[in-house]
Design brief:
The protein has 117 residues and is of the alpha+beta class. The protein has a single domain, classed as Glutaredoxin. The protein contains 4 helices and 4 strands. A 4-stranded mixed sheet has the order 2-1-3-4. Strand 3 and strand 4 form a beta hairpin. The longest helix has 13 residues. The protein is globular. The model has no long low-confidence stretch (mean pLDDT 95).
């Protein structure tokens, strides 16, 4: 069985809930705090591709930084958004959960249950 990796921020309640659900299932997982171990461009692009998502799909639009940077008024490419996310990880929705070939944005946390079967 493929091991699960949860890319998360420990202070995020949704991340904590997703981890709790995985723990309760008994499945093995690794939690990666992407603030301490930042994504590389290749890793973030790869996760998005496996999830079938574009950078705009995981952009935290309610984040103060989103507003400060005026991102709602800008039309940025996928690569430009990824570069901003790498520079400012608060712009990334979380948790992102990877298990084998499958990647999900676990918002709400219960979505992680799809990987627990």
């Amino acid at each position: 069985m493929a091991k699960m990796t949860i890319y998360q921020k420990p202070t995020c309640s949704t991340c904590r809930e997703a981890i709790k659900l995985v723990k309760e299932s008994g499945q093995q997982y690794t939690a990666v705090n992407y603030y301490e171990r930042p994504f590389t461009k290749g890793k973030l692009k790869g996760l998005l591709k496996k999830a079938g998502l574009q950078a705009k799909d995981v952009l935290r639009t309610k984040e103060d930084l989103y507003k400060t940077l005026g991102l709602a008024k800008k039309h940025l490419s996928n690569d430009e958004l990824i570069a901003l996310m790498l520079k400012h990880p608060d712009l990334i929705q979380r948790p992102i959960v990877e298990k084998g070939p499958t990647v999900l944005l676990a918002r709400p946390a219960e979505i992680v249950k799809q990987l627990l079967r």
